[in-house]
């Protein structure tokens, strides 16, 4: 799934990103963290109002626009989460 960034920072503390789902419905996500791993950038996003869910998206620039691509590979997903967790261990 490739989704184009629609909306940027709403408040100074929270960055809200709106994406379209498969049905064209808008979903707001809070940007939890940008993670750099193996020279790639990933975004950890949580749907607004849902405390239990978080998703990992690879950030790529396509035709000059930032695109968020869902990470579906379980190994890649786990590596990104491990990198995120390691930031709290330092």
Write structural notes for this entry.
The chain is mainly β and 90 residues long. 14% of the residues lie in helices and 47% in strands. It has one helix and six strands; from the N terminus they run E-E-E-E-E-E-H. Strands 1-6-5-4-3-2 form a six-stranded antiparallel sheet. Strand 2 and strand 3 (26-37) form a beta hairpin. It is globular, with a radius of gyration of 13 Å. The chain starts with a strand and ends with a helix.
What's the alpha carbon Rg, rounded to whole Å?
13 Å
- Number of helices, counting only DSSP H or I runs of 4 residues or more: 1
Total strands: 6
Largest sheet: 6 strands, antiparallel
User: Any idea what the shape is?
Assistant: globular
* Proportion in helices: 10-25%
| Strand adjacency order, main sheet | 1-6-5-4-3-2
Strand content bin: over 45%
Span between termini: 33 Å
Uncertain spans: 1-12
Q: Give me the secondary-structure category.
A: mainly beta
Rounded mean pLDDT is: 83
Helix-strand pattern, N to C? EEEEEEH
